[in-house]
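Subject: Re: docking follow-up (zinc ion)

Dear J.,

Thanks for your patience while I sorted out the input files. As discussed at Tuesday's group meeting, I've set up the holo structure prediction with zinc ion included as the bound ligand rather than trying to dock it afterwards. The sequence and the ligand SMILES I used are pasted below, so you can double-check that they match what you have on your end before we go further.
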Amino acid sequence: MDDTTREALVAALQGGAPIVCYAQCVPCQFGQCRPTPTPHPWAGPDDIEHAAATGRPEPTGNCACDCARVES
Ligand SMILES: [Zn+2]
Ligand SMILES: [Zn+2]
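The structure tokens for the complex came back this morning:
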């Protein structure tokens, strides 16, 4: 997690920003990045299930990892 991501997470936790924007998917959190950069959502089945179980909106948004960015 780089500093920008950390700051965004802190801001989100403090209510200053939507929390969906700076999350990484589980494989990326464990360093299993896509070999080829490909946009992909950060939320996995577990996240969607958890959101449904806790009455939150379904998670949306792309993974914040570098391997989810294709602009060069
Ligand atoms: Zn990812
Ligand atoms: Zn990644």
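A couple of observations from a first look. The first helix runs from residue 3 to 13. The CA atoms of residues 19 and 43 lie 12 Å apart.

Let me know if you'd like me to rerun anything.

Best regards,
T.
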